[in-house]
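In the previous lecture we treated proteins in isolation. Real proteins rarely work alone, and many bind small molecules. This record shows how such a complex is specified: first the sequence, then the SMILES for zinc ion.
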Amino acid sequence: MTEARTPCINPRCRRTGPADEFPGEMICGRCFRTLPEATRKEHRRYWREIKKWDRRIGRTADVLKTSRMRAIRNRLSDQLNRHWDTYIKAPFLAPEKPEGLDAFLEEVGL
Ligand SMILES: [Zn+2]
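The predicted 3D structure, ligand included, written as tokens:
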């Protein structure tokens, strides 16, 4: 029986993670470290905030309060997803600039 694996989002990277731990998408530690410091910080900040709200929701018995907290938590989760797509995933999926393009543009006067 083969264990399900989730591939790293970097198409040029062959690493994978266990699918039960990383459902959907994942980035391996090595590729994550190639991202700018500000991007990594922001990513970790979203995760910290989300976990903080999860803990608060778990400790609260008041239904009205938990539904308000859940709304905040969901908004953070949306922000995390947008940040993931734009700043973490997109740079790896962007096609590399073709070589010699600058020289060509210079030649045609752009
Ligand atoms: Zn990777």
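Summary for your notes: The chain has two domains: 1-34, 36-94. The first helix runs from residue 29 to 32.
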